[in-house]
Amino acid sequence: MNESLISTPPPNKAETVLLLHGATSVHDIWAPLLPLFPANYRIIPLALPGHLDGEPVDLTQPISLDLLSKKIVLEMHRQGIESAHVAGNSLGGWLALELARCGFAKSVTAFSPAGSWPNHKAFLRIARAMVFACRVFPLLRPLFAPLMVFTTVRQWLFASQMRHGERISPSAAKRLLLAICRCPVIPPLIKAFGDHGAIRPLPDPSIPVNIVWSANDAVLPPAEFLEPMRDAVPSARFILLGEAGHVPMYDQPAAMVAHIQESIEQTTANVTMNA
Hints:
By secondary structure, this protein is α/β, with parallel strands linked by helices. Helices cover 41% and strands 12% of the residues. The protein has helices spanning 65-78, 91-101, 120-144, 151-157, 170-181, 186-196, 222-232, 253-274; strands spanning 16-20, 42-46, 84-89, 105-111, 209-214, 237-241. Strands 2-1-3-4-5-6 form a 6-stranded parallel beta sheet, with helices on both faces. Helix 3 packs across helix 5 and helix 3 packs antiparallel against helix 6. The termini are far apart.
């Protein structure tokens, strides 16, 4: 994990916020949000296990979402953090919900979370696209990287993920491409999803859960994927994030921070009401 991305809190820090990126992505993706958080928050953009800069996983052993969740909690405990507010995108959003299930998360803000699909055909469509990218991008990376200096190329390359790919710097774009090339955990993780199914119901996590779905999500379109997630997490508050794609960090960073802060404030309000 790039330690330069972790904010150093003052002694009177207010809250710790754990940020979890999506599958094949990298923790750098949260960079547009970091300057927008209050200065007294400790922000931890974590590299997911099995991803670029993340903790290696043993691919000879069964891979599961539960395994990734346990590794994340253990890493937080190693840093002296027993609980935190958790925000995640896509796979990171699903993991955030699992961290609520196990009692680690103080609040959850899940942006277009993975984990729900209306039918097996929809699951296969997403799964095959991810496995294809992991296999093909390493072959194409020598061709793509020199082209990242061109704004139109970055916009085109990331069009399926976000509305404003042109806002990504050439260096950040190269990191995202590298992350896709170095993500060996994806094929076995996809197999585990196919074997074990979608997210298990989370009827009442007893903490604030805000699920923020990008209105222009082309990867997990809300018209198709939102309702199955609502069925799985009926106690959550569902919000549409306008003018944003599946990976909204470069599209709506200020709105994302506002939604995370809202989840945190709901926790504070709940504590006050129960006092």
